[in-house]
């Protein structure tokens, strides 16, 4: 099934994210996590793509397991900045062979010391969108950044670049995590003013350990709210308490998003079925109320 059809159905969709094993890594824990998350019947499950493409075959393998063995629509991430056009073409062929119809088209972070821009390779995600459109009938998603992408000097310019991805024909957008829903609402308003009319899936990250908090601050440019900082300060050294608080925080965000009309919720579940299960349980009656089923 194409994700755009789910997003256009009018119901609230909930999706979950997995990351594949590293090259040469152990598949079994990831497959177990995929199986347990699939049992929660999310609308789709996405599988990340390791920066540099090192896990590309593993992304396809896990996405294929989700789609073909577990019967859940899979969204395969694909990054291009460290890739050649031949490699991308081969990846698209592999995805077609596995009947995977949905791709999140990403540039990827520029590896340190990389000769960028390299004219023989991709520079931006919109070039990958062009390529995917040329090579098959895929449903294409792209990333967006409610607080602006870290490399971009201001939000207006970042929106111009997002508009370019929309104009190249991507079907939907998924946001970077955010911890203040007003940041998302303001972004949605500015996107509409910029005539970006695609469905936007809100990415919510249940923060469940200290290392995640440090990584978020270092890499994504996402701001932490005072409320979130207080939780991290108070419970940061107690893994169980931090996990409980992180799940509660993410649940509260999702409740507010659904109450305010957001239809696509993507949970950055990070191979943690217990976290996904708790959040799904916390919002089950909201989904029943909105979608008419549980
Ligand atoms: P782009 O849309 O190409 O934008 C990158 C930067 O270039 C932005 O600052 C943009 O404003 C600017 N830009 C765009 N077009 C132009 C132009 N024409 N001229 C000048 N500047 C321009 N990374 C992974 O490695 N694997 C993953 O699986 C993965 N999944 C992700 C999922 C989501 C939902 C999100 C939000 C991010 C994900 N990332 C992933 C991280 C992502 O790869 C990085 O944030 C990357 O730095 C940007 O990717 P992009 O596709 O948004 O790039």
UniProtKB/TrEMBL annotation:
Cofactor list: FAD
Alphabetical keyword list: FAD, Flavoprotein, Oxidoreductase
GO cellular component terms attached to this protein's record: cytosol
Gene Ontology biological process terms from the UniProt entry: methionine biosynthetic process; tetrahydrofolate interconversion
One Gene Ontology term of the molecular function aspect: FAD binding
Entry keyword Flavoprotein: yes
Pathway: One-carbon metabolism; tetrahydrofolate interconversion
Known catalytic reactions: (6S)-5-methyl-5,6,7,8-tetrahydrofolate + NAD(+) = (6R)-5,10-methylene-5,6,7,8-tetrahydrofolate + NADH + H(+)
Alphabetized SUPFAM superfamilies for the sequence: FAD-linked oxidoreductase
Pfam family, one: MTHFR
Family affiliation: Belongs to the methylenetetrahydrofolate reductase family.
PANTHER family documented for this protein: METHYLENETETRAHYDROFOLATE REDUCTASE, METHYLENETETRAHYDROFOLATE REDUCTASE (NADPH)
Protein name: Methylenetetrahydrofolate reductase
UniProt organism field: Guopingia tenuis
